[in-house]
Fold this protein.
Amino acid sequence: MDKMEKTLFEKICDKEIPADIVYEDDQIVAFRDIAPKAPTHVLVIPRKAIPRVNEAQPEDQALLGHLMLKAAEVARSLGLGEGGFRLVLNNGADAGETVPHLHCHILGGRKMAWPPG
Ligand code: AMP
């Protein structure tokens, strides 16, 4: 069977599409969002193409834990540790998800409103 078409973010992982990568390891890649919604806006994604957190499986537990801890580490490395930052996962149409490859937004560098729009 043919492999499914790669997602945009798989192509970024495989360096087929350029991105401003701020951190990567064997499990995840973190890169700057192309249309930033805050002074610092980075996406952290698993190399594994999990569409969204709703489709994550029990065997993804360690990967998602790694992603969360690294998101905080990346946020600190970008100077957001002191002032704070927001981590966001948009899951599905109502949440505004546009790329079907699980990604955690790191947003920081300005005061955030709550509740989100
Ligand atoms: P979401 O709306 O939660 O699915 O987030 C998708 C994010 O991906 C948006 O914030 C987009 O600006 C961002 N995005 C789309 N294409 C690219 C790209 N080629 N490089 C970096 N970020 C991108």
